[in-house]
Amino acid sequence: MNIKANLIVDAKGLACPMPIVRTKKAMNDLEPGRIVEVQSTDQGSTADLKAWAESRGHQYLGTVEDGGLLKHYLRKSAGEEQQEKKHPHAAENEELLRLLNAGEALTVLDVREEAEFLFGHIPGALSIPLGELESRTGELDREKPLYVICRTGSRSDLAAQQLAEAGFTKVFNVVPGMSRWTGEKVSEAES
Length: 191
Fold this sequence. Notes:
Elements: E1 7-11, H1 18-28, E2 35-40, H2 45-56, E3 59-66, E4 69-75, E5 90-92, H3 93-101, E6 107-110, H4 114-118, E7 126-127, H5 133-136, E8 146-149, H6 154-165, E9 171-175
Parallel strand pairs: 1-2, 5-9, 6-7, 6-8, 8-9
Antiparallel strand pairs: 2-4, 3-4
């Protein structure tokens, strides 16, 4: 399949959030209605770019895998630029750590990819990668507060928005996320 793009963004070898950062910069310089092809080797980039595009009003067209290379296609929104949506409720790492240490009844939802989760996560955290969240919301307790975490607060922000749209009322995006987590971590990759 040969899809014509107006611009190609090279994000090969880069992990979240860099494919989004590069795509965002490229989209700023692109005319509305034009197509961008984002080339990435990060398996998590499909869900990340799809969620990012939708949050900005851009159209996510699809992804084609070509021998380990992911080619994502997005169409820049026509008309007025939309303000990037942010989930209105955030909690800092320290607040989540304090709640966990106090034994509060809550759910920590880690939306990073499985490999990221296995190399280090908060004890007791539930792993549901962002790309699987929509189909797995039934696994979540709607009564307990949900603290959504990723590496930097970007994917978790998109996940928090999705959960709020799905009717979850006690959702908090944890910032700055696992990249700066100082509490206990467990790793399943090393066992």
